[in-house]
Specification:
The complex is a heterotrimer. Chain A has 13 helices and two strands. Chain A is mainly α. Chain A folds into two domains: 348 residues, no CATH class; 39 residues. Chain A has a two-stranded antiparallel sheet with strand order 1-2. In chain A, a hairpin with a 2-residue loop joins strand 1 and strand 2. The longest helix of chain A has 37 residues. Chain A starts with 11 loop residues before the first helix and ends with a helix. Chain B has 20 helices and two strands. In chain B, helix 4 runs antiparallel to helix 11, helix 7 packs antiparallel against helix 9 and helix 12 runs antiparallel to helix 13. The longest helix of chain B has 32 residues. Chain B starts with a helix and ends with a helix. The longest helix of chain C is centred in the middle third of the chain and has 27 residues. The radius of gyration of chain C is 23 Å and the shape is globular. Chain C is an all-alpha fold. The chains are: A mainly alpha, B mainly alpha, C mainly alpha. Chains in contact: A-B, A-C, B-C. At the B-C interface, helix 2, helix 5, helix 6, helix 7 and helix 9 of B face helix 4, helix 5, helix 6 and helix 7 of C.
Amino acid sequence: MGDPLYAGGIGLTVVLVTLLKVLVTFVLLLVATMFMVWFERKIVADMQHRIGPNRAGPWGLLQTLADGTKLFFKEDLLPDRADRIVFRLAPVLAVVPAFLAFAIVPIGGNFAEGGTVSMFGRETFLQLADPPVGVLFFLAMSGIGVYGVMLAGWSSGSKYPLLGGVRATAQIVSYEAALGLSLASVILVNGTLSTHQIVAEQAGAGFGGIIPNWNLVVTGVVPAIIFLIAGTAELNRPPFDLVEAEQELVGGFNTEYSSIRFALFFLAEFMNTVTMSALVVTLFLGGPSGPVWGPEPVRTWFFPIFWFLLKLVVFLFVFVWFRGTLPRLRYDQLMDLGWKALIPLALGWFLLLGAVRVARNEGWNLVVTFGAITVVVVVAVTLLNLSLRAAQRQRLADAEVNA
Amino acid sequence: MSLLASLAAQAAQPVTPVTSVLVETPSVDWWGLLPLILLAAPAMVLLHASSLLRRVFRGFYATASVGIAGTAAAFAIVQWFRVTDLDGGRGPYTTVASAYTVDGYSVFITVVLCVAVIVSSLVADGYLRREGLDGAETYALLLLSASGGVVMASANDLIVLFLGLEVLSIPVYVLAASHLRRSASQEAGFKYFILGAFASAFFLYGIALVYGATGSTNLGTIRQTLQDDPFVDGGALLLAGAAFLLVGFGFKVAAVPFHAWTPDVYQGAPSPVVSYMASGVKAAGFAGLVRVFDVTLAGQVRDWQPIVVGLAVLTLLGGSVLAVAQTDVKRMLAYSSISHAGFLLVGVAVASPEGAAAVLFYLAAYGLMIGGTFAVVTAVAGPGEQATGIDAFRGLGRRQPMLALGFTVLLFAQTGVPLTSGFFAKFGVIKAAVDGGWYWLAAVAMLSAVVGAFVYLRLVVAMFMVEDIDPHHGDGDVVAATPAPVAMPAALTLALAATVVATLVVGFLPGLLTDLAGDAVPVVLATLP
Amino acid sequence: MEFVVFLIAGAIVVGGAIGVLAFANPVHAALSLVATLFGVAVLFVAQNAQFLAAVQVIVYAGAIVVLFLFVIMLLGVDRSDDLRVEPIVGQRPLALLAGVGVLAASLVAVLSAGGSTATRTVRSTAVAIPTEEPDVTSLGRLLFTDHVLALEITAILLTVAVVGAVVLARRPGRDEPSVEADVEAEA
């Protein structure tokens, strides 16, 4: 499979088209990030009955630009006890993966007709890259993103950033498991790791012509919810923002940063938010797919991009909504939620989908299969609960002994 | 829409072409895997049970552990009759895509491992209660480690062999450090882990090089490839791979240049665990060693034999000479176990069916006597394993003659005194060396046995012939007239009695075990394609 | 093109590996380990093994080295080691000698086999990976056919590792002093 652009050898046009795609993708990401910052401030302000940014540009739209410019011209500080090389490296390590992760998101293309668009006489995917392991590429980039936060915390040579960095690492590594397991359900159902093909799989007619054939429905909603929660935790966004809990950590891993380096962290954070929303859309909501009509350029260019952006904004709103309404979790609650609820649930759901698939392939009796599944689920949940309770009993007993 | 309904809708969906690539999985002979499953699965059930049951009777976990290992051994013995050619059995075979061999050899080692677990569990029962560490984990880890050993003995694929090695080792690293209130135990676990991980890296690199030379990790395929074309273009590659594999095995069985961890780990780790290390881990290590070198690389014997002979000589001499210098009994037994590894290496080095049979006999006999030996050490060392010096054994012959007598039998067996199993073990190895024309190697082995005898006799002398307590011991104070008698829990006594009886029975009737070991070996040599 | 990629990635791999040894600060050493792992991932991509490359980055760079750093930070051992004290005299030169020796031996072994490997006929089915399907598919097929036993034993191995970690992580109660303390109290 792969992008048809590269099927006929690499010529000048191909290089130019690719460069254009690079440019457009990153400009889109940057603009979306700018928009997201403004959007977040505006929505949160609305939720708190404030007005929010309203001076720079129409409706305060240029506020982010103004803030960014200000940050760029601020004094750049390097703490005495900082590790010079790592301190400078950390913001770069945060921002580069954030840029790269967006490359695998299909932002357009009519998937009823192969998902390609025509550009300078060439058929191509409207996404920067479609590696055969696209979804894993995203996981890899989010794994690398940890280094930025972690090293920033360590290299500052100060205790609050260090605590912030340590918290971030534990949190991200823990929730990456849940994130990956919920992704596994999507991969199982779609049978591919490529984001383009995952979207193509979801483009079908669906159920009864009303409910779309999106993974949200096909995987049974649960993986999507887990992905959203784990994704929020990956992003260190509220209610999982223990990394930057001002009341406890002064500022978090970025306390000692200022000027452009601080701006880079800020940028990475919001770019990751945009990327995560885009991925939720791609993996669970059919990406750019949606009803299309009209003549050629409108049908293949306008509508898919419109649907994609619309879905994207919905999820950006969800993230802001979380922030505006949910109180921050305590650290042990955070870990309990990740390890004792999300991971077993994601794994169990994955096994469930696997069982259904095997039953279908082997032509087993559906009623018997569901009966067996129910029994297994009940036994597993009971055992898990009993074990958790036993562990808690043990912990309390130990605490009593040590008190 | 409800979740269940969406699942049903998904089930009703037509099969999409992308995902319907059905893979035909290899056939599995569950009967052949049964001993492995019977060790690993109940061990995990035991762990679950221990977290869910609030109260269990005293010794429940040890009983369960003995029961599980006994069941696995019983099924292995049933298999013995199927895989040996006697009485119309089906003969040895491989299963699960020929990654797992079931033959007389693997069954024999399985039983040896199960017995090692049984003896260690019996010793551990009293020990753990004495040290306030009672719980299911020790037994579960022992059983899981034994399951790794079974995998090693049965592996017909280098990757499976490596995984077996890790499943064997990791629980033992943990067990070595399992006495949480004794820093020596923590240190032992840490040292063992670091060096073991280092050795695993060598082992893996060896696997990679052998794969590069032969294009396969399957032992049968490797052997076939080497038979078809003995001078595989990667001759040097294969030899380098074999050398790295040998380093990995050398660490596991504590052969001399790779033995540095042994004394510290034996001294620091809890004695019941050391018992398992000396019997079980050694047996599994040699099982893998024999299968890779004596069987798979049989065609390259002239290339690797000099190295293994060199290792054997170093191990024989190094182990027994260094043992003489020790004053701590656990350290002494560590060095003596090294010298026993030297004898076993002699059996490997001669690369003959007789040699392999002698190794099997040796492993079985040594496993029993070292199990009993560490039962005595566990009892005598007392709470916290403080009394492990030779002094602790002074006058034991007068205070507790039966205990001392049993210990003496086991020590004599390790020395190689006739009418004990140890004599026939050493005899078998040396005979195999002589039959193979390795006269000087046999002479070195005998020399090592003589030097080693001094070590064991020193303990016997301390027990029976030295004045009980020196009244002016230490700084001149008169210390208590007689130390408290050694506490002997029932399970430990049972283990000791059983190993002593077995040592003597095999010593009087060696034919029982030699026949079995002899039956096990030719099979392994013929089994691989 | 492939050669250039190989050269660059190889330089990163070797440079990173040297960095792991040369940096006195453990955090810097861990970071150069990340560089090495990245270089290896690039080599995997050059061999058309994208799945391995991605997993390499996710598992090694994204999880294992992160945990290394985590431990380094929590234990506060991130100061440079004092390398002047040598616990056993002469062990460092000996270790260097042994390391160089092992390296030389493996290099000789690999290089001496290099010339003829290309001309050798493929001996095993495992080597013949079809190139038209993604490497995930062939890897998955191998895992569930030839190496299914290894896969299952890996499950046991992981369970064992978890059980072991839990056993070791348990701390003794505060009212149970260490055995050594008992002895000191008696003395």
